[in-house]
Amino acid sequence: MKALSIIRTTIAVSLLLGATLAQANPEVGGDVSFVGFKNLLGTDTVINTVVVKCPAAGTLVANASAQISMNSVFTPGEADVIYGITKNSTATDINQHHLLRQYTDSGTTFGTASYQRIDSCALNQTVTYRFIAHKVSAQSASAEKSSLAVTFVRDKI
Fold it and tell me: Is the pTM of this model over 0.85?
């Protein structure tokens, strides 16, 4: 029993010291958002949102991904969706987006949307990232199993 108590104490002290060091020397940090399903509209649709506060000057790396379902109403044709990551905005950033275009014979098609955005960050700056998308030529579209993960790194990567 005494050995178990020593191990528990060692683990607790290690966690406490590690947490204290992390606060005193913020090397990395971040947050994540996961959404199971979201219908996409013909206008910018916010799928995921993550708000981070930079503990020091550094770099923010935002990664988003989702499975996109697009439907062209059971007729062959192209289905398009625009997606990207915005910073402090709910509107598509013309410099931070991709177009997902799929051709379908059956009317429904699936594609993978994946995007990364990297920005600098100042001490105590609060940044809101949003993974957004909207259908273009698809009759209907949805984002499934979407995630947005934002990581703070103090040193330049």
Answer: no
